[in-house]
Amino acid sequence: MPKLLIIEDDAAFCQMLQKFLIRNGYDVDESFTAQDAKTKFKASTYDLVLTDLRLPNYDGLQLLSDIKEVNPKTQVIVMTGYAEVGSAVEAMKKGAYDYISKPFTPEEILMQIKSALNQETERQLDSAPKDSHKSENLVVDPQDDRVVIGISEASKKLHEYIKLVAPTDMSVLITGESGTGKEVTARAIHDNSKRNEHNFVAVDCGAIPKEIATSEFFGHVKGSFTGAVEDKKGHFEAANGGTLFLDEIGNLSYENQIQLLRALQERKIKRVGSNKEIEVDIRIVTATNEDLTEAVENGSFREDLFHRINEFSVEIPSLEERFEDLPLFADFFLKKANRSLGKVVQGFSGDVKDIFKQYHWPGNLRELQNVIKRAVLLTSGDMVEKAALPKEVYKSKESNAKVDNFSKADYEKEQIVKALKQSNFNKSKAAKLLQITRKTLYNKINHYNLDL
């Protein structure tokens, strides 16, 4: 019988939810305060914790880190009645399985709990010895934190790089277009490393105001500044022994870059307001969709930090570059959407498959996943039909059909030339307009033999 802990300061709601879950076959404990909860999850092992994001006298995100520090395998679902999607997403980056907004129905929370517990079971099966004949034609799942191999050469090469670098302690810089699955790759590196029993902490550097970045990275002590009502661990301490993933690292201010470099060099940190040094043992994985070499050249990114984080680099291919994998990704995201939405859609109509092949997917895997989830929600029959797709996806095919001999390559060449003209042939600006890296732009210019 799965063992659950509910952390909720609303006693009546907590007890009602506890009774409902007990009736559905779960062993459920309750806590009305963070302190009581900390005592319980340190004394007992829970399969899943259901916690309110807002608790009196304690930060819900910090409590999530506390839970993961005690037992990284415990699944956590965050409840919020504040419609703060940003905080809920941040909770997921810190290791929460998912979030659910209040008010919710009993069926909704039951589905979430079953899905979270099923995922942990699958993860345990994945870590067991595998049949050497098992198929390797698998997919990347950004939400379930799995990386598996596709059939394209680009996907196979990516997987080889992951297998090569994961067992080491080298710092890894992941580059690629937006939506290609950089965090998924970072987690795959962690999951295949000797640190996989410890925390994987993901941080979106672009979402941290520079004024509080020091506290976010290194923590603070009570009273060190206005609003510091209690001691708080930073991301470095939360990731101790494991992996710290810094997404969009190019967005860090120059001052924060200096602090980060010092921490990486010395492997020691100080909380804000404290003189005590704390040793940390972490692996750094970073990601960006910018050209950091150009940022180094123009002085906005420190060269010494760049070399520190770039012991090994991995470029994630765009969906266009691994187009053979599109059916695999589509089928996987369909199953995922069915599970998330409680649907049983069987597949895609022939027309939809053709539209998927014609569309150029500028948003990569993230766009594909969103399009499929929306389509599943709108589908009442067994198959996803054209009417369930956003107009921009199928209109692209229709406009292409109106032009004779207008191939995908012709379209791409036209877009590259248009972007270059619009940016006055500044390749860095053109790459940003096209939502690709400068390296990818150079490769495409050479591939199409564009005379510029």
Explain what this protein looks like in three dimensions.
- With 452 residues, the chain is an alpha/beta fold.
- The protein has four domains: 3-121, Rossmann fold, CATH 3.40.50; 153-315, P-loop containing nucleotide triphosphate hydrolases (Rossmann fold, 3-Layer(aba) Sandwich), CATH 3.40.50.300; 322-401, Helicase, Ruva Protein, domain 3, CATH 1.10.8.60; 408-447, Orthogonal Bundle (Arc Repressor Mutant, subunit A).
- It is built from 19 helices and 16 strands.
- The strands form five sheets. Strands 2-1-3-6-7 form a five-stranded parallel β-sheet, with helices on both faces.
- A hairpin with a 2-residue loop joins strand 4 (54-55) and strand 5.
- Helix 13 (326-341) packs across helix 15, helix 14 packs across helix 16 and helix 18 (427-434) packs across helix 19.
- The longest helix has 22 residues, at 106-127.
- The chain starts with a strand and ends in a 5-residue tail after the last helix.
Primary descriptors:
19 helices, alpha/beta, Rossmann fold, 452 residues, 46% helix, five-stranded parallel β-sheet, 14% strand
Topology:
Blueprint: E1 3-7, H1 11-23, E2 27-31, H2 34-43, E3 48-52, E4 54-55, E5 58-59, H3 60-70, E6 75-80, H4 85-93, E7 98-101, H5 106-127, H6 153-165, E8 172-175, H7 182-191, E9 200-204, H8 213-218, H9 235-238, E10 243-247, H10 254-266, E11 268-270, E12 277-279, E13 283-288, H11 292-297, H12 303-309, E14 312-315, H13 326-341, E15 347-348, H14 350-358, H15 364-378, E16 383-384, H16 391-401, H17 408-422, H18 427-434, H19 438-447
Helix pairs in contact: 2-3, 13-15, 14-16, 17-18, 18-19
